[in-house]
Amino acid sequence: MTSLDSKLVGVLGDRTTKVLKDLFGYHTVGDLLHHYPRRYLVRGELSNISELNEGDEVTILAEIFSANSRRLQGRKGNILEVIVTDGTAKLSLTFFNQAWREKDLKVGKQGLFAGKVGVFNSKRQLSHPDYELIADGNDVDAAVEGFAGKYLPMYPASSKLPSWKISQCIELVIGSLDEVPDFLPEHIREKYGYPTLHQALAQLHNPVDLDSAEKARQRLTFDEAFLLQLLLLTRRKELKGLDAVARPVKSSGLLAEFDKSLPFELTAGQRDVSAEIEEDMAQPHPMNRLLQGEVGSGKTIVALRAMLTVVDNGGQAALLAPTEVLAAQHLRTIEKLLGSLSDGGMLGGSDQATQVTLITGSQSATARKEALALAASGAAGIVIGTHALLGESVDFKDLGLIVVDEQHRFGVEQRDALKSKAVTPPHLLVMTATPIPRTVAMTVFGDLDVSTLRELPLGRQPITTHVIPVLEKPGYLERAWERIREEVEQGHQAYVVAPRIAAGTSEDADIDFLMGESSSTLASVEELGPELQSGALKGLRVAPLHGKQSADVKEATMKAFANKELDVLISTTVIEVGVDVPNATVMVIMDADRFGVSQLHQLRGRVGRGTSPGLCLLVSSAIVDTPARERLEAVSQTVDGFELSRIDLEQRREGDVLGASQSGSRSHLRLLRVLRDESMIEQAREDASAILEEGVHKYALLQSELAQIQADAAADFIDKS
Ligand code: ADP
Ligand code: MG
Predict the structure, then answer these.
(1) Range of the domain at 48
(2) What pLDDT score was predicted for residue 402?
(3) What is the Cα–Cα distance from 718 to 721, expressed in whole angstroms?
(4) Residues whose CB is under 5 A from ligand 2 (ion)?
């Protein structure tokens, strides 16, 4: 009797069981059966190399003619090029950053190689092909011996456990497997013409033809989307069912005063989103809303209005920011916007006024003590902070609203830590300037309602972006520094952004998206500062800013920059999110290919915030036709954040997309790709929502599948903390 829950021990030998556990963490039959093949070698359908066409999915039988690895020019990493021949012609196989395969792929060895034919430098090639080498003295049939079908599955494997060995294990397991009960409700399965779970697993591992393999893959992909949506919708429903204190808008009070004093009109988008938030907060259930808005679309005001509404109701609001620079800026901006309305408790302050306070990790003991007291007594209606806000010593009198700025830096766990500081569940508003396509939002933030701010405030200036390819056009860099001088002469300010703090440091807290390994040749703030100061930017007022400086230094530098006492800020990505200095008009980003697409978009959003147009120059040594260069070109060609986030997402793996926010469910997602499978995700969401409406308890198998995933997620969570 073998089921998906059976232990592998007993079904397979002890040694194999141990290797599967060590390599992949597999314990059960189900774990192993969810190890899916990447593609299939087709027995008896080998292609001749001389007849390959671009775009074909092919399998060839060939002998290794040569194998050489070399470092890439002008960028990091190495490439292993293997030339194979089958007597009709030669073909190149390439592996990027996998030099270790060189010891596998020895000259003279024969093997089956499978992949999609591409063309590079007008030569045909297979990039990252799957292969099965033939043991010396064996023939082809012996190499695939023990496998009965025509389609030989190729699995993610290692030299310890090659693909054919995995395939043998799976065959053994399937042979002894009892009918697998299907958790997917039958009417859904029939609607899409999917195979049963048992059929799907059997067909994926040993297909009769490629069509049924594809159907099986679709079914299993749908399962992932469906279960994920069901989990997210369940969580959403649970959250909505909780009791919270309603905080409706009052006709008079801080909010009313604030609106009167606002120096500009809210945009239509800001009004709509505010109305949605106000309606949510007027309910006796917690709001759980995501506000995604383009860089510069004015999310802060929207959040501030929500915070004031809560204060008008006698509650407090917490604003969580990802960096100290941003937290400190929020304090300054909010105090400035509120004017005398934030003078609560001060001599001469109005009775309605409240207080705004700041809690960060590196503030002085006295400042912290004072801030903690203001939060605990309720005197501070608005408490701004970094993740220091999550600390145990932080207490609120009546926390009614949590605003999380730049959500992509925080996970569910952090939101929950802050929520636990409220007496009753607080309202929650999370904000992100990394706009994401609808289905991604559904997947990543599926438990939240989504509001979108697409419109920028009137009079916002356009940003022009150019790539400066230093290898091809070294002179352009000189021109970039001249542009900075010109802007400064006109009374404007500039940013220079570098990926590292200091030269040769192996690790920088400020880099969060590095393509490839780190390198000492990258520009650093500490080197660039003196170099520019004594060279290209001589005579200008230049200062460095980075994450390793003390809070006081950072604060003083930002303040000086905001007050126009500095011309140029040389900085790491600490300025990436939220920094708002309208007089800054030009930004030069060094080694721009080291940053992600969305990150570049965020960075350049720091210029063109005032009345003059912005200019962003992306300096890079990436050469033409490389993915790195193409990403930069994409950023220079559009300012549509949604478009850019698609490009960014396409280059990231699912685990990264889902990130910490789905820690647990992540291990259950193997096939699903949020962009490629958009329409499937939408369907799965509809189906999941119908099932939830009907009641999951009507589907016993489904209910226990969900419980299982939730238990795994909880276990993952405990492992991590
Ligand atoms: P983001 O959405 O990127 O966080 P901010 O909230 O920092 O954007 O707003 C960007 C700038 O636009 C700020 O200087 C803010 O004062 C200004 N702003 C916000 N709303 C409006 C508006 N309706 N009209 C004019 N300026 C606005
Ligand atoms: Mg912001």
Answers:
(1) 44-149
(2) 95
(3) 5
(4) 578
